[in-house]
Every structure is written in structure tokens, then in C-alpha cells.
Amino acid sequence: MTDPIADYLTRLRNAISAKHRVVEVPASNLKKEITKILFDKGYILNFKFVEDGPQGTIKIALKYDLVNKVNAIKKLKRVSTPGLRKYVGYKDMPRVLNGLGIAVLSTSKGVMTDKEARELKIGGEVLCYVY
């Protein structure tokens, strides 16, 4: 697998389009941090790290509106790919849907959202957009 983050986002996208409640994703430290951010910002209902085998898995419970059966995540977009990395400074930080969405960044201080990176005045690699 050449791009594990793209695989992670695709698994989430497929589970959302199939209206699944839970999706299992192979774990890595970067995927765990992205999952924590999605939980903190209210895009997923819950998550659990399962240590089975050498790698482990992440079980993610997706968040739906009970009345309209609409998912909290409208779109997941991979920005930086292995073939073309996208780095930004804190002054050039992208605003996703005028601040309604989030951009997930990998910085020298760890994985964080665009708003947190702007406050700390650090730039980094833009991993994905979520809205």
C-alpha cells in the first residue's frame, strides 16, 4: 500500500455511502491521531483502538442524523499525496468552507487542525479536508 491515509479516507467514504454504523481500519499512529481529531470535532460518534496482531485496528462508529439519516461528514478530500506533497505556512493556511470545515495538518508539533496550527503559528503538510 503506497498511501495509507488515502486508504483510510476511502474506507470511511465507502462506509458512509453504504450507510454502515461501524468501520474497521488498520491502525497506525497517524491514523489514530486523525481519528482523535475527527472525534474531537464531532465528525464521528466514537472510536476504539483494538490491539490484535502486530498492527491492530481502529473501530470507528460513524455519526448520523437520526431523522434524515444524513452523515456528519459530507466530504473527505485527500490533499497531500505521496507524488505531490502540499506544505503551507501558517499565513497561507487553507480555510475549508470559510471555517465550517477543517483541514488536518501534520506539523512539527504533531497532527492538528488548521485552526490550532494558525494559533500556534506553525505550518506543515496538509493531509486532508473534512466537511
Secondary-structure-based class equals alpha+beta
Secondary-structure element pattern, one letter each: HEHEEEEEEHE
Amount of helix: 25-40%
Q: How much is the average pLDDT? A: 94
- Please count the beta strands (DSSP E, at least 2 residues each): 8
Describe the protein's architecture and organization.
The protein has 131 residues and is of the alpha+beta class. It is 25% helix and 31% strand. The protein is built from 3 helices and 8 strands; from the N terminus they run αβαββββββαβ. Strands 4, 5, 6, 7 and 8 form a 5-stranded antiparallel sheet that branches. It has a 3-stranded antiparallel sheet with strand order 1-3-2, covered by helices on one side. A hairpin with a 2-residue loop joins strand 6 (102-107) and strand 7. It is globular. The mean pLDDT is 94.
Tell me briefly what this model is.
The protein is of the alpha+beta class and 131 residues long.
Q: What does the secondary structure layout of this molecule look like, with pairings?
A:
Blueprint: H1 4-17, E1 22-26, H2 29-40, E2 44-50, E3 57-62, E4 76-78, E5 87-88, E6 102-107, E7 110-113, H3 114-120, E8 124-130
Antiparallel strand pairs: 1-3, 2-3, 4-8, 5-8, 6-7, 6-8
For this entry, give a set of tags.
three-stranded antiparallel sheet, alpha+beta, 3 helices, 131 residues, 25% helix, 8 strands
